[in-house]
Amino acid sequence: MKILSALLILASCSFAQDSAWQPLWQPKENTPGYKADAPAERWNDAEHVTNVHMPEYRVYLPEGQAAQPRPAVCIFPGGGYRNLALAKEGEEIGRWLASQGIVGVAVKYRVSSDAAHPEQFPHQLMDARRAIRTVRAHAKEWNVNPGKIGVIGFSAGGHLAALSTTWKDAVPGETKDAIDGESPEPNFAMLIYPVVSMDKPYVHGGSKTALLGQAKDAELVKKCSPYLQVTRQTPPLFVVQSADDGVSPLNSLDIVRAAQEKGVPVEYHLYRKGGHGYGMRKQNKPTDAWPQEAEKWLKQFNP
């Protein structure tokens, strides 16, 4: 059934012009925290990759030539900061965005399930910020409007999308090349069944441990809880979750409430049923409707 759903998604999208995977930093040795002895990435199955120590991106360009520069969206798959659901929440999303006339950029950010070679904060935030900067640096080449670059994330990738949207400080260890001269701030964010809180009883413990280890720094935990970092300058948000999600829906409610308190435009869809980790694949559940709602919402950036 999952394979059939994936095929239906691909059939419904006009095929994008897919690039090959490219390193976010070139040469790769320039990657902050680069480890020459890190093991090769490993696929757990046909859809999930782990032990990603070399962050990469892949571009999905819409077919044809647009008259005006178009939006772009960086895509952060989920996987509890231990692996990435790269097919369902990365590549399929890139092709869907391209079918809407939007440049999709799937991001293979650093994750690890190997205790001997962990990947922890701030590497993932560095990768997200570098991806956004890379899109801005290539805006002319990819015919992208640099003022309409968004992010979309799923589960732990939703946390990364929210974190990159609300983080305002410099990140220690970031490089200072030409691409890093671009702004890392997105212009809108889409959070799909996201992890948001790192400090409440309903935090997703696995994601927190994978990202922060056993950190007891209360200030860092607070800064890594995006709902506590929303300001009046936070860009528009689109949030999706189901009431029966194993990641507590209170995560979404927190950031939605924070956005409303600060006057940030937010569209929120809480579905009665849908569970977690469905991507865009049909389940014959209420959450099947979210991509159509997202397409409507995206029209404000791509009329």
Note the main attributes of this structure.
disordered N terminus; Rossmann fold; alpha/beta; 303 residues; 9 helices; nine-stranded mixed β-sheet; three-stranded antiparallel β-sheet; globular
Structure described in brief:
This protein is α/β, with parallel strands linked by helices and 303 residues long. Helix content is 30%, strand content 19%.
Report what the structure shows.
This protein is of the alpha/beta class and 303 residues long. The chain has one domain (2-298): Alpha/Beta hydrolase fold, catalytic domain (Rossmann fold, 3-Layer(aba) Sandwich). It is built from nine helices and twelve strands. The protein has helices spanning 2-12, 87-99, 123-137, 139-142, 156-166, 205-212, 218-223, 250-262, 290-298, and strands spanning 17-18, 22-23, 42-43, 48-50, 56-61, 70-76, 83-85, 103-108, 144-154, 188-192, 237-242, 266-271. Strands 1, 2, 5, 6, 8, 9, 10, 11 and 12 form a nine-stranded mixed beta sheet that branches. A three-stranded antiparallel beta sheet has the order 3-4-7. α8 links the parallel β11 and β12. α1 (2-12) packs parallel to α2 (87-99) and α3 packs across α5 (156-166). The radius of gyration is 18 Å and the shape is globular. Residues 1-15 have low confidence and may be disordered.
